[in-house]
């Protein structure tokens, strides 16, 4: 941790470097956004806060459904319950921790307003398959508000706590995690692949 970072963090980190909820400095947020090839990033204190803010931004609430993987950390699911939507869990593929896309296709119905994929262990999910499913199911989507209308389909959200810096080839080009989904939540907690004194960041 350089002097500039420590000055910006101030009282958010104690003398023993115990992890505390903290805010990122403005320059660091810009650098993260640039690294992930996106134009906007926001630093929050937890994954639950990040994912819940993404859902609230889109106007998703009671009566709506949000789909996520059955294999995940609690934040992927608890953020949905926190905002008041109905949580729909989709099982993973055989011999994989990645969501079963065939089962996912059956779960995307009229009330499904977002899908939270979970990228694990440095492995980015197959978003080409996911976008084919969401685009194919557009006729089932009934937007509520301007942001939902702009997407014209269920929003693609990523819990990318364990994959900061990972990338995946899509349509022949390498894409950074952070520029693939509509919204991405990273974690810089000590147990993850890239840790700092911070917590979470939305892209």
TrEMBL record:
Domain of life where this protein originates: Bacteria
Signal peptide: none
Matching InterPro entries: DegT/StrS_aminotransferase, PyrdxlP-dep_Trfase, PyrdxlP-dep_Trfase_major
Matching SUPFAM superfamilies: PLP-dependent transferases
Pfam families tied to this protein: DegT_DnrJ_EryC1 (PF01041)
Gene3D superfamilies on file: Type I PLP-dependent aspartate aminotransferase-like (Major domain) (3.40.640.10)
The name this protein goes by in its record: DegT/DnrJ/EryC1/StrS family aminotransferase
Protein species of origin: Faecalicatena fissicatena
